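User: Structure please.
Assistant: Input sequence and predicted structure:
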Amino acid sequence: MVKVEIITIGDEILIGQIVDTNSAWMAEQLNIAGFEIAQITSVHDDADHILSSLDMALQRADIVLITGGIGPTKDDITKQTLCKYFDSKLIFDQSVLDNIERIFNHLLYRMNELTRSQAMVPDKCQVIQNKMGTAPITWFEKDGKVVVSMPGVPHEMKNAMTQDVIPRLEDKFQSAVIVHQNVLVHGYPESALALKIEDWENDLPPHIKLAYLPNGRVVKLRLTGVGDDVTVLRAAIDEKLESLKVLLGDAIVALDDVPLEKLVFDKLLATNKTLATAESCTGGNIAHVLTLLPGSSSVFNGSVVAYSNDVKMNVLGVDPQVLATHGAVSAEVVEQMAMSVRVLMNTDFAIAASGIAGPGGGTDDKPVGSVWISVSSSETVKSKLFNFTSTREQNIERTTQEALILLLEIM
């Protein structure tokens, strides 16, 4: 396979001021296109550091993609450093200036000399116009290898990669065919799942690899096939997938890399049903992940964040005697919460959760991480106790995941 190395430039990445999301996105897109990612490196805004990293990258990879360090300010040194590496000099490019003027006219900004200086480009590169910004993309070739420098601004980089860089790389290099198949599995810790499917995994052909990607209470299995014929690869993966379905049965939540909230949303939408939530320990997080989805108003009616017992009693109508006898973290209370909010919000389904997120508040009988979840419809109520015993943030996240899975089971 053709190997690619990604280099991100910027002190702000290395000091943790910003998170490098560019590399993850680039790696995903390149992998889909059939390129292998050899390494991802982040370096300082330092010429010597950039030069040494580029030199080492070209020893490992056929393609080096660089983001960051290009722009109008003095700390943007990538262009000058690439000139040094490729024994090049800066020359004026009218097409780049025309592109900059087009962007500034659209934005109604006045161009200054620093911005105008971006029309100076290395004379040994091919220029690719940046349709979303003022810093041009530069493409270098040396000894059959390619180096491309792009802006670090995510939307500018993504447009350049999608519209220009990846298509040009595909034209220049013969990339392999890669087929991915994701399987979301619930109910098994990663190690237990590995033992469960050990024989199945050992029977995979050499050109199909398996990766385990845990995410809270769900493990994503990713099958990756590499070859020359997409039809042959797809057939081989489908054959293995069928035997995995028999092996894992209902533990398979989905055959795609889809968030649980999207699975719930799609199923509600397809059946013309609606949902409400009553949340205590999650503080509205279940409602939050659902309402992040575009169009969620068509299936999600609302939520009551019943953090205190007063709200549980006065808004949701939980019986004070039930609260006193069983406590807020109990099957009896979450079931009343779920049934009440479903009627209150006039929905087909409801989720309720009450627990001890931590780090304090636990007891011997109900330690930190104890969570009761209930889901209800007009026909049924289903409740389950979970013991997560993790950090506060993890307890909230895992409660959210389990609540959505429990809902999927009754829908």
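The domain at 177-254 is CATH 3.30.70.2860 (Alpha-Beta Plaits).
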